[in-house]
């Protein structure tokens, strides 16, 4: 037997602070020439060239794109298409929202970005697959079609962002990869303390920072202080042990460093809304998820 495993990159981008939402798209095939009136955009627009050249004016700058190139237009941009006979290009509209509030999320580009910097580097002709799938969902209209479209939009969004010059991105966007790596570093360090009850000082020492700095980072990256985060990780691990290894409540309590089963049960119920004994009874014996450790 030959098995190839492809793992998630350790320092992977985390898009939890923004959510691309698909609105619509169309394929424009030109017969003849037309000057589209200059207009201002209210949402993001992606223009992917299938057959060029495509020419436009963006914020006073003339641009020319060839086959496979992609331009991202941001809210507030002034744009005019110079459409010519034989052109074919896709136009896709989307919004970027904060997943928690549903309001407009962080800006993609820095405020003074040049028009040419909004062109993605590389050939995106192969990404028309995403648009074909978006069309299938729009035409099929089956259950969860909107959720599938948003998932496709999110995957396409991050591929396009990866093709932009990092210098063109907003400060918040540039910080996302570093924030993701730090999140994983903190979570990994805390995972080594699941069987103990460390102080914030001990956790901070393991990460080489001060207690205050660790607290600030946990609140900024996870939305909660270190002690609360560690407790959540303990309860999540307890859930795995109860469901997949069918260990007893007392065994799990001891393995995760709780003072006694009562203390463990109270913490578990507070975070999960039900007793740990209910968790173990409701699950048949299952294999432990790959990569899990005590």
Outline the structure in words.
By secondary structure, this protein is an alpha+beta fold. The chain folds into 2 domains: 19-170, Jelly Rolls; 192-281, Arc Repressor Mutant, subunit A. Helix content is 39%, strand content 19%. It has 9 helices and 10 strands. The protein has helices spanning 128-140, 145-162, 171-191, 200-207, 211-222, 226-244, 249-255, 261-272, 276-281, and strands at residues 19-29, 34-35, 39-40, 44-51, 54-58, 61-65, 70-73, 78-83, 88-97, 119-120. The protein has a 5-stranded antiparallel β-sheet, with helices on one face. Strands 2, 3, 5, 6 and 8 form a 5-stranded antiparallel β-sheet that branches. The longest helix is centred in the middle third of the chain and has 21 residues, at 171-191. Mean pLDDT is 87; it is low at 10-15 and 283-294.
């Amino acid at each position: 037997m030959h098995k190839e495993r492809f793992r998630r990159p350790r320092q992977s981008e985390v898009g939890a602070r923004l959510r691309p939402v698909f609105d619509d798209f169309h394929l424009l095939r030109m017969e003849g020439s037309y000057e589209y009136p200059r207009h201002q955009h209210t949402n993001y627009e992606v223009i992917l060239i299938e057959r060029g050249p495509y020419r436009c004016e963006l914020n006073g700058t003339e641009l020319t794109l060839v086959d496979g190139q992609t331009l991202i237009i941001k809210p507030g941009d002034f744009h005019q298409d110079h459409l010519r006979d034989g052109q074919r290009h896709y136009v896709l509209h989307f919004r970027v929202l904060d997943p928690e509030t549903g309001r407009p999320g962080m800006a993609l580009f820095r405020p003074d970005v040049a028009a040419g910097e909004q062109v993605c580097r590389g050939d995106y002709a192969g990404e028309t697959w995403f648009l074909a799938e978006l069309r299938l969902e729009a035409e099929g209209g089956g259950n969860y079609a909107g959720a599938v479209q948003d998932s496709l939009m999110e995957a396409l969004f991050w591929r396009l962002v990866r093709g932009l010059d990092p210098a063109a991105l907003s400060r918040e966007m540039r910080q996302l990869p570093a924030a993701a790596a730090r999140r994983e570093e903190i979570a990994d360090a805390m995972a080594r303390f699941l069987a103990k009850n460390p102080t914030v000082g001990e956790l901070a020492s393991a990460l080489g920072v001060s207690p205050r700095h660790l607290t600030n980072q946990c609140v900024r990256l996870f939305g909660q202080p270190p002690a609360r985060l560690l407790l959540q990780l303990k309860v999540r691990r307890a859930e795995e042990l109860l469901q997949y290894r069918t260990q007893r409540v007392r065994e799990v309590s001891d393995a995760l460093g709780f003072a006694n089963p009562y203390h463990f049960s109270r913490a578990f119920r507070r975070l999960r809304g039900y007793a740990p004994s209910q968790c173990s009874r409701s699950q048949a014996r299952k294999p432990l998820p790959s990569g899990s450790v005590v």
